[in-house]
Every structure is written in structure tokens, then in C-alpha cells.
Amino acid sequence: MHASKKKINSLYKKEEKTAWLMLLPNTLGLIIFVFIPIIFAFYISFHSWNGLTEMKFLGIKNYLKLFRDTSFLKSLLVTLKYALMYVPAIFFLSILFATLVHAITNKMQQVVRTVIFFPYCVSAVISGLLWGFLFDPLNGYINQILRIVGLPSQAFLGDPKQALTCIAVTSVWINVGYNMIIMLAAIKDIPKDYYEAASIDGANAFQKFIKITLPQLKNATSFVLVLSTINSFQVFDQIKILTSGGPNSSTTTTVYNIFQQAFEQNKLGYASAQAFILFIVLMILSLIQLKVMSAQES
Q1: Gap between the Cα atoms of 5 and 257, Å rounded
Q2: How many helices (H) and strands (E) does the chain have?
Q3: pLDDT over 70 for what percent of the chain?
Q4: ω into residue 247 within 30 of 0, thus cis?
Q5: Are 53 and 44 contacting, i.e. CB atoms less than 8 angstroms apart?
Q6: Quick check: 5 pLDDT over 80?
Q7: What is the DSSP string of 77-94?
Q8: Any residues with CB less than 8 A from the CB of 287 and at least 6 apart, and which?
Q9: d(C-alpha 298, C-alpha 296), whole Å
Q10: Which of 220, 241, 222 lies closest to 230 in space, CA to CA?
């Protein structure tokens, strides 16, 4: 009996060692390429540094400068506007598409699901170039359609009032398929007995959706909302490709402003300070969302 326990313990130890060895490459990757750069960025946020010369210690001057920097404050406002467009749109569309795909019971479900998810597999550069062509004010397909139906052409990316909306449309098109898959997986986990009982009670499709589907999607909706908020505050690729922050800085979000400070003006210390302020804002927003969702669930 004692010998068998020793064998079991030795097997557990071997499995534990194997598990640690399997995790070691990813752990080292996180330490080298994520945690060390974060610590270094936090360190240089207290310095003035262009990446070539010696660092000059400034203390918290970079952080104090942020609150007087109109370009940074404007970029936060632009990012907030973008988030208010992007997050609700992708949230409701992902639920809508997931519900519609789930309602398809034949082989067409796989086809429709693949079509909606496909843009997520396309690189951001190709997606940006595609939508840049669609939004072209002279020869873009969207303006050609508007002319055919007798409506005036639009400037789209050339108009400060429309450019940010165009960026949001592009981002939703790219990411809605991924969020739809999350919602669809959550819908498939809902027991069919709930819907059968509701049908016996005479509930229609809308009532089933409101009373059964939505309440059962709480965990998925929390994940999608937090992830979408984080993504909205980190948008960069689409802006770089489509507008480069213009026109008139109307699409210069905080991340793009950080990029300009770091790699165009060579103010790496000041850019790092902006990045950590953005991190704090994201953390606060995520905690608020999780708090609200947990309060609603309780």
C-alpha cells in the first residue's frame, strides 16, 4: 500500500514537471516580450529620452505635462467618441448575427458563419486598403452607389465630421465575426428545455429572446463588452492606414497620439507616460463594467 502511494506521488511529480516544461516557453516569452518592456516603459516615463542620447530624469513632470497638453486631452476625447460608436455597435450586431446564425438549422449555417467571421481573418492592412477604396470620395463604390440613387457624394475620410465614423464602421466589420462566435457558443450552451417550456407557455420568438437568451448570455456579454472597450481604446491600424490621424486631428486617438510622440517626435519618455495614463483609464473602465455586470447579475 505504501509503495503504491509512492508511485502515485512520483507520477504526480512527473506530470507537474512536464506541465511546467510545457508552460516554460510561453512564460519566458511573456517575461521577455511583455513584462520587461512594461517595466522599462514605466521607468523611462520619468525621463526625457529620444532613444539615442542619455536619459534625463524628470520625475513626474511628464505626467504633470499631460494635463496641460491639449493634443493629448483632445485625443482622449476622440478615443471616447470612437468607443461610444464602436462598442454599442459591435455588441448589438454580434448578438444579432449570433441569433440569426443559430436560427439557421441546415448546412447554410456554416456558410453564413464563415462569411461573417472571414473579415476577422483578413490582415488589418488589407482591410484598411479595401475600406479606403470604398470610402474614396471620387471613385469609391459607396459614392458611386449614392450617385446612382440620386444622393449627393460624401467626403467620408476627408470630412472631420465623418472620418471617425468611417473608422468605426471599418473596425466593426473586422471584429464583429469574432464577437459573434463568442455569442454563438454561449447561445448553443443554453438548454433547449428552456425554449420548449416557453413554447408550451405560448411565448413567441421575441419573448424567448428577451426572457431566455439574453439572461443566459451574461458571461459572454461581460467578456465582449470589456474586450470591445479595450480594443476601442487601442485602435491604431485602421487609423494609420486610412487617415493618419486626420483630417484636422479628428481621428487622432490616444494610441495614435502616443505613436506620434514616440516615433515621429522622438519623445519616448513622454509617450510612455501617456501610455500608462491610458492603461489606468482602461483599467478603471474595465472594473466599472465588471462591477455593473456583477451587480445586475446579483
Answers
A1: 61
A2: 15, 2
A3: 96
A4: yes
A5: no
A6: no
A7: HHHHHHHHHHHHHHHHHH
A8: none
A9: 6
A10: 222
How far, in Å, CA of 202 to CA of 290, rounded?
Answer: 35
Q: Which long-range contacts (CB under 8 A, 24 or more apart) does 213-217 make?
A: 213/99, 213/187, 214/95, 216/186, 216/187, 216/189, 216/190, 217/95, 217/183, 217/186, 217/187
Cell numbers standing for residue 231: 480594443
For residue 56, the surrounding DSSP H or E stretch is strand 56-57
Q: Is the distance from CB of 172 to CB of 90 less than 8 angstroms?
A: yes
Please, are residues 289 and 222 in contact by the beta-carbon 8 Å criterion?
yes
Q: What is the pLDDT of residues 36-48, one digit of tens each?
A: 988 999 999 999 9
d(CA 156, CA 143): 9
CA distance 227 to 289: 11
Residue with cell 472631420: 160
Count of other CB atoms within 10 angstroms of residue 261: 23
User: What pLDDT digit, counting tens, does each position of 245-267 carry?
Assistant: 989 999 999 999 999 999 999 99
Torsion sign (Cα): 280, 282, 287, 288: positive
Q: Check pLDDT > 70 for residue 7.
A: no
Angle between helices 108-121 and 70-103 (to 10 degrees): 160
Nearest Cα neighbor of 156 from 142, 137, 131 is 137
DSSP state, residue 47: E
Q: What is the CA radius of gyration of the chain?
A: 25
Which cell is 6 given? 509512492
Phi and psi at 138, nearest 5°, equal -100, -55
**Amino acid residing at 222:** S
